[in-house]
Amino acid sequence: MQARLLSRDDLDHGPLSVLSDSEEKHSSSHICNYTYNGTGKEFRASLHKGTDSSVEVCFISWNTTKISSNSSKEFNCQGDRHKNKVIFSLWNMNANQTDIYFCKIEVMYPPPYVYNEKSNGTVIHVKEPQSAFPLWILATVIGIFALYSLLITAYFPLRYMVFVPSSFLRLCLLYSSLTH
User: Of 15, 31, 16, which is closest to residue 90 (Cα–Cα)?
Assistant: First the structure.
């Protein structure tokens, strides 16, 4: 009888997770459910990033007496083992960590080595933090410039209109006296 390992990726947000500023420190939980009908004694679960799963984000391994886990330097990740599932918690994520994430469950011992097929994965999209520049400041600055423009447009032509006709009149009189 051959042992089979079946797994499924779940995320507490669904198949697409969008992390924004309002979520505490850009955190997400990735749940890897699995069923195994064999007699494995040593297991390893890992979370991978990218369509080709080339980046191992973190892992947890366990046997009947010991549990160990590790995370890559670029990620804050921790794996927790539960009955028939492993929960990977990610926190302090940034925008360049936006990608698709996959679970990999392996039976390390006893032979034969068994691992799950690639699942559909979960897309995690981390939004860049928005500028903290308040909108009311921008509106106030625009309002001040609009008022200034209105004053320049309305006040100065009225002020100089008094002098322009009299100056124009003087020029006309001077011209007419020179031509006659």
Answer: 31
* Cα distance between residue 161 and residue 96, in whole Å: 61
Does residue 112 have a cis peptide bond before it, meaning omega lies within 30 degrees of 0? Answer: yes
Q: Are residues 160 and 81 in the same domain?
A: no
Other C-beta atoms closer than 10 Å to the C-beta of 142 total: 10
Place of tokens 């004053």: 151
85 and 68 together in one domain: yes
Q: Are residues 161 and 116 in the same domain?
A: no
Separation between Cα atoms, residue 77 and residue 88, nearest integer Å: 7
pLDDT digits (tens, 9 = 90+) for 3-30: 444 445 544 444 555 555 554 567 888 8
What is the CATH number for 42? 2.60.40.10
Number of separate domains in the chain = 2
pTM of the model: 0.64
10 Å CB burial of residue 39 (0-12, 13-18, 19+) is: exposed
Strands (E), 92-157: 99-109, 114-115, 122-126
